[in-house]
Amino acid sequence: AVTDSEVPAGPPLQVSVEAASSTQLRITWQPPDRTLWNGDILGYVIGFRHLGSAEESFNYTRVSMTGDVSGDFRLSGMDKYTQYQVVVQAFNTRGEGPQSPVVIAQTLEDAPGGPPREVQCSALTAHNLQVGWLPPSPHLAHGIIQGYRLIHEPADDDETSESAARESKAMTSTNTVLHGLVPAANYSIQVLAFTRAGDGVPSKPIVCSTDEAAPEPPERVKAVVRSSKSAVLSWTPPRRANGRIVKYTVHVRQVGDRVPVVKGTVPASQLHYDVQDLSHEHSYEAWVTASTKVGPGRQSRTVPLSPSPGASVSAGIVSWGRSLVLPHRTNVTLACLVVGAPPPAVEWRHADVRLDPQPQPGQGGQGEHHLLLANLQRTAEGNYSCHASNAAGSDAIVYSLQVQVPPTAPLLLTTTTTVDTVQLQWKQGDNGGAAVRGFVLAFRRELGEWEEAALDRRASTHLLSNLHCGTRYQFTLTAFNKIGSGAASALRTATTKGGKPAAAPQSQFLLVNATAATLHLPAWQDNDCPILYFVVEYQADGDDWVL
Fold first, then answer.
1. What CATH number labels 411-495?
2. What region holds the Fibronectin type-III domain (predicted)?
């Protein structure tokens, strides 16, 4: 006999559960035996809980549907790579029937949701760093960790550019040694874990330094004759100091001798040395070595050094011209230390145009003709040359000046949208003469509060997710380098897809019998925006509405 005065007497049949993704389980089933319905089936209750949590009660989700069709439902928002127990019950107007047998299923693996922990590094030598870490927190592993990827790149300003080498190394252990690094250099290091589903979240960058080593030789050396008994030896620092230069050592000897007649030291801040008590009857040669705390490096090239045989000495410039890259709004002094007899005439030029007025000789001596450039702006960029001449000869040096400023505004575009994402892309213009260190994306719901997201300096696209559907958003993007943040891009807007729910036809939504009205809520169209809740009002004919 069929009665509608009892709950269903049998459970749903052929319950099957399979992973649909790392956060979804798909449950399918058949209705209970028709003879056990005890009335019309109005829907099903799906219960789920973590496997192994016997004390944990089931979480229940109600699904409204008739008993004439097979069941198919997806549970969303599940924990990744986690086993669940799932049961299904049918219900009618009297309540829920018995549970189906427990079915166990596991969500799929995903990329790790957290970085490796406690990343540490230390220098082994001038060329090697040791790096160690702990695995990600177990609840963030999201699968079986297959290995780790270590990413390192130079962290020093003079090493970093948009094209700086960023190297990646994969391994299965939680420690490694990096080889072939530059001495006394800073390296930015990140580590990420990966599963079969992909790479996880990289750790925050840490900076580690290699040990110092002996320096390379001074890059350029020259000898400038001062008189019949003296000369000035001048040099530029090593191309790679391999640490902090603590001193320079000058060696001078007669050609053919093995023992230097002069061996002097000067502090790292001094790049020239006065050689006295020479004889114009002899020929000399000289070289320079630089030292760090590790010790002296290789000697520079050897240069000839011969005093003037007479009273007249050709104009010579002890200082070196070089390329300078400096921040804007700073000051710089371009050195031009001149020797010669009679005293040379000195002239400064900018891009081959004579500067007016000319700088006056410095207080340190008649030979100092230094040029001060104050409050640098980009308009000051270019070549500056110092020219010295007298009756015996002439000399000149050239400085090339580049002034660094904040980057210009990126060109920002919104390309595609979904119900909860907006795809952005951009092109960076002038980097201001210094490597872009990153971007800051500012965004908000229209008339809402601004939020910010930091983006990698290599990025040119970004998918902004977890947005509200059917909502208008505003965006700006700013680039920054070591000088500072540049101007923001033009304001861009985009609207995520979706709209208000659409009412279902009454024939699909409302099922009425003598004692009950069943509302089939899934029949409403969500218009691409998830339905958050329903408000149900009813009234007896002629009465007030009841909420």
1. 2.60.40.10
2. 11-110, 115-213, 217-310, 406-499
